[in-house]
Amino acid sequence: MTSTALATRPAELMLAGPLGSLDHYIQAANAIPVLSADEERALATRLRETNDLDAAKRLVLSHLRFVVHVARGYAGYGLQLGDLIQEGNIGLMKAVRRFDPTVGVRLVSFAVHWIRAEIHEFVLRNWRLVRVATTKAQRKLFFNLRRAKKHLGWLSKEETEAVAADLGVTPRDVTEMEQRLSGRDLAFDPDPEEDEDFAPATYLPSPNSDPAQSVERENAGTNDHERLTAALARLDERSRVILSRRWLADSKATLHELAAEYGVSAERIRQIEANAIGKLKKQLAAA
Q1: Residue-wise pLDDT tens digits, 124-181
Q2: CA distance 106 to 109
Q3: Cα separation of 247 and 261, whole Å?
Q4: Which residue, among 141, 189, 142, has the nearest Cα to 166 in the 3D structure?
Q5: With contact defined as beta carbons under 8 Å apart, do 106 and 133 qualify?
Q6: Which of 61, 70, 216, 231 has a C-alpha 20 to 30 A away from that of 286?
Q7: Pick from 132, 157, 182: which residue ends a domain?
Q8: Is 206 a domain residue?
Q9: How far is CA 190 from CA 197, 198, 206, in A?
């Protein structure tokens, strides 16, 4: 079977194994023949001059194995290889669209930068909940410093300065990225069943933590209690008892219970209660 025939049968190769199998995808990608320099140049010229999508398809398919190879190098970031490959394929398609065959370089040399750029962006978005690198210097440090720290512990001052000089950043940038890499994501307010002693919510100040406000509230409460006690003492005994049993007792008495005790109607107890409350308000307002 010719190289062209194999390159036009990717769908059949994909369907030969179980749906969703990454191993089968990699096997199928490796089965697609690599284009020669002349074939690649001819396809790229057709795409550039006539927007031939079939030519673009063959250029992409013939380089899927290379995307897999590049994606494997980022397997240590805790992300799924299939997701890394998918992002790399996006970079490959962007590279195919921008490839100029007249420059004199192979597509694989041009595409590697686009493939890595898409994978880098995906890793930075998904490695942690909070992005660890946003500026150009931080992005450069993230990948280079993490790779170097696989063989080193915390960097010494000399090592920090050497890394900074090598990557064209400041020693402070290196130290800050090293601290970010050594940290981990924490839930702001973790589940009570989880053992998160260092969750950020643990260190929030209590709304009642101001000593001055606590003393002020305590003094205000004491003062209010004293004023209420003094105002109650100025009432006649029956009014004071009725108010106390209706509002201050743990087991509050009803109007009918008090009416039975005093031998009057429930309406009369309500009137005594209302008059006593009115007197209390006046005394508290004047105090």
Answers
A1: 677 654 454 556 666 666 556 555 555 445 556 676 676 667 667 777 776 666 666 5
A2: 6
A3: 17
A4: 141
A5: no
A6: 216
A7: 182
A8: no
A9: 9, 10, 18
